[in-house]
Amino acid sequence: MNTPPAQDRRAAAWAARRLVAFTLLSVAPVALGQGPVERVNAFYSSIAESQRSDLVLLPVLAELEQPPIGADELQQSMLLPAGSSNWDRAESWATGEPQVAVLEALDQITQGEDARTAMAFGQAYGPGVSRALIARGMYTELGDPPSLSAATFGYMPKLDDMACLVHVEATRRAAAGDVAGALDVLTDWLFFARQMADRAFMREALWGYSQMMDAFERIRDVAYTDSRGDKALRLEQILAAIARLDDRKIVGLERLTLPRADRIAVEQLIGRVFDRTGELNAGAFSSAMAAVGSNERPLRLFSEAARWSGAADGHANRTQTEALLATIAADFDARWRLDPFEQRHNTPPAFAQADGNSRMAVIDAAMDDATVLIAMRQQLRAEAAGTRTALGIVGFFYQSVTNFPPTLASIRPRWTAELEADPYNPDRGRVRTPPFEYFVPMRDTGAQGGGPHEMSVVARDANFSLNLRNDQFVLYSVGPNRSKEWARFVSDDPQAVQGDYLIWPPVISLLRIDLRQEGLLE
Q: Which residue pairs from 79-88 have beta carbons closer than 8 angstroms and sit at least 24 positions apart in sequence?
């Protein structure tokens, strides 16, 4: 019997993994004797150990030192400029041996451009993790008996610290003149966050989505800072950065699927709190719900038990609970596959029937509203396509030395094969793909009558205004309100009811400039 080459085996393993993932929230046949935990862990069973990023990353991540003050929160680490009062501590931390080891591991687990052979974060939940990782808390604790709804992700705080490290390292490299290296480490981080976006629990996926969005914005931020300064990026480095972010490669946003462990967690919880007649067992209910409520706050176990001890009487029976769970799952699945502009997205999800409803506390306690991910996926589409387009404009500008492209179409085919559509713009049909909105202040008089462009920015709990001149360009999406408003009011908040979704100048860059002008980042 001939053994297929390693690449073919990896491709087959990837295909099998995707087949499992694409069965969105469906009730998969359960193998004889396979419990809920085993069902969830089966999602990772086809990943070869050589392709598991967790086996490379977690041992060194356990040794990661805590970030210093001034860089110990994500936003601080993204905004912190080189040379500021907190910079020396942050730089010293980022170049320490444990942190360098983590960055080397990050580089190792994000190599390649083919999603079929890319590494995946494949750690199982609960048992089956090495004793060394358990001793360091770098695993998912499910309690005793193992309960998916009570999962505590021990490695997540370290991943938060690692995010701070990556952003500090990107600033350090750019400040040292290695702007391409800064883009590289941020893209590495983007690729790792993409792995986490494929995880089975919604909490992990939410983290992955959020980190991907921050990575896209910081990639633009680094390019923006370079464009306003030394212009150290070479043309081939810009082309390489755009190529690496191609959605047909690792990024692959259209391959994203809904997490499935949360539904299985509810099914497990239902099996524990209802008796064979379908009625709620008050004792089992209070203890199980207490475990869910205190999963990351064990000292609250007794108070949570007291809270739920009298709540069993008003809960729906098993048949009603399972029926609503099936309805919620089907609704999430259908919405995930819908076109973003379908009217159904504007109607309340079936999950609203459980959200805050004491009669459906079992569902409410162990499940989250997955429509949040649907909105975030659309925002990610805008971030990804906007980043590639913005880098294409920067490339054109660097090549021409002094001129921005007269229109977006000018960046084809040198910088992008085609103009990508604005994901928030509904003006489609007859093969129309409306691109992002683009203009150069003062040059393109339709924007502001020929004068400096006045822009009001709402960003990360800040609100400020500024004027832009013809030494930079503006690239924006019409945003969730689907209205072109010439980027007079902008944000990077997809929930904004007014204004446009700003791609360039990056919001994080403008916020840093404003904070420095206010003397808050010295």
A: 79/508, 79/511, 79/512, 79/515, 79/521, 80/167, 80/168, 80/171, 80/521, 81/171, 81/512, 81/516, 81/521, 82/171, 82/172, 82/174, 82/175, 83/175, 84/521, 84/522, 85/522
What distances in angstroms separate CA 215 from CA 129, 212, 274, 480, one per listed residue? 29, 5, 44, 21
Distance CA 375, CA 186 (A): 23
Neighbours of 492 (CB within 10 A): 24
Which two tokens mark 514?
A: 């404003």
Classified as helix, coil or strand, 255 is helix
Q: What is the dihedral of CA 346, 352, 356, 359, to 10 degrees?
A: 170
User: How far is Cα 74 from Cα 89, in angstroms, rounded to an integer?
Assistant: 16
- CA count, 13 A, side-chain hemisphere, 233: 34
Which residues are CB-neighbours of 304 under 8 A, at least 6 positions away? 289, 290, 291, 293, 294
Backbone angles phi, psi at 230, to 5 degrees: -80, -15
Dihedral sign of CA atoms 499, 470, 227, 425 in order: positive
The size of the chain, in residues, is 522
d(Cα 290, Cα 188) in Å, to the nearest integer?
39
Mean pLDDT by 10 residues, the chain (522 residues): 41 39 37 79 94 98 97 96 95 98 98 93 92 95 92 96 98 98 98 98 97 98 97 97 96 96 95 90 85 59 52 86 97 96 94 92 91 95 97 97 93 93 84 89 73 88 90 93 88 74 96 91 80
35: left (phi over 0), alpha (psi -120 to 50) or beta: beta
- The CA-based diameter of the chain, rounded to the nearest angstrom, is 77
| Global pTM value | 0.90
